[in-house]
Structures are given as C-alpha cells and as structure tokens.
Design brief:
Blueprint lengths: L2 H11 L5 H7 L2 H27 L5 H24 L6 H29 L4 H24 L19
Length: 165
C-alpha cells in the first residue's frame, strides 16, 4: 500500500495500520465489498437456519429478525476491525452503524418503490440496481458516520500547525 493510500485510510478512520484485509485488497472500498458479501451470505445462511430451527408454526419474519440480530453484530465487528480499523467509542459506533444500516434499508425501500411503481422499471433489475446504489451510499455512511474519527490534534511539540499550511 502506498503512503498516499495509507494516509487516505488514516484520514478517514484515525488509524495508520491498514490491517490484514486492507493489505491484501489495498482498497477500502473493495474491503467493504468483501465484508459486505460475506455478511450477505451469512445473513442468508442464518435466515435459512432459523427457518429450519423455528419450524412452520413460527412466522418467517421471526427468522429474518433473528438472523439480522446476529449478522448485524458480526458485520459491525468485521467492518470495524477489517475495513475501517477504528478503536474506542464502541457503543457510539454501533448505534451509528445500526442507524446507517436502517437508513440503507429505508433508502432501498423508497428507491425500489420509486423505480418500479413510478418509473415503471422491471422489479428484479431495479432491485439489483437499487441495492448497488444503496451499497455505495452505505460505504460512505459507514465511513463518514459510523466510524468517523476527528483528525488527531497537534501536540505542543509539533507547533501550532501554521507552519504546515
């Protein structure tokens, strides 16, 4: 990873160590997609498993909620440790993470309804396109909201910063 790429990661997340995934894929956006893909597969697997465990007498939505409850915690940990590489503020970060994910769900619903009902696009291609747009929006939401860190303050030994302007 170049110094510029490392600096881009440090500026967004407050860390200089890119970690193993970012050293491998070299782009935070790609690392986000890898973790997101894994979490999507995990969510599907957990939903199917919960459907099997809960049986036909329990509404399927219970399986979805149970799977979501597990997968959002795993997604948070993976994004926090492998993609955005931040420390501290765990509860604040988690609440923001859930808010960004909830916003993504709402955005997905609104944009899909708009694409299909108002603009007349076919539902399946529209769903794929909207999910792609929401994934991009989610990356920026997590980068600048969920895991945002203020730039490190200059220490007295480095001066006021005026010399660096």
């Amino acid at each position: 990873m170049s110094a510029g790429e490392a600096g881009a990661h440090a500026g967004a997340t407050g860390t200089e160590d890119p970690g193993p995934l970012l050293r491998l894929v070299r782009r935070q956006e790609l690392a986000f997609a890898v973790v997101g893909g894994f979490n999507t597969a995990l969510g599907m697997t957990l939903t199917v498993a919960w459907l099997a465990v809960l049986g036909p007498d329990v509404p399927p939505s219970v399986a979805v909620v149970a799977a979501y409850g597990i997968s959002i915690v795993i997604a948070f940990v993976l994004h926090r440790t492998l993609v955005f590489r931040v420390r501290g503020h765990v509860v604040r970060d988690f609440l923001r993470f859930v808010a960004v994910n909830s916003g993504g769900l709402l955005l997905n619903i609104v944009l899909l309804e708009l694409a299909v009902s108002v603009l007349g696009f076919p539902d399946k291609p529209a769903a794929v396109a909207v999910m792609g747009l929401v994934a991009i929006a989610s990356f920026f939401g997590h980068r600048y909201i969920s895991f945002r860190r203020e730039p490190a303050a200059l220490s007295p030994s480095t001066g006021s910063g005026a010399e660096q302007l």
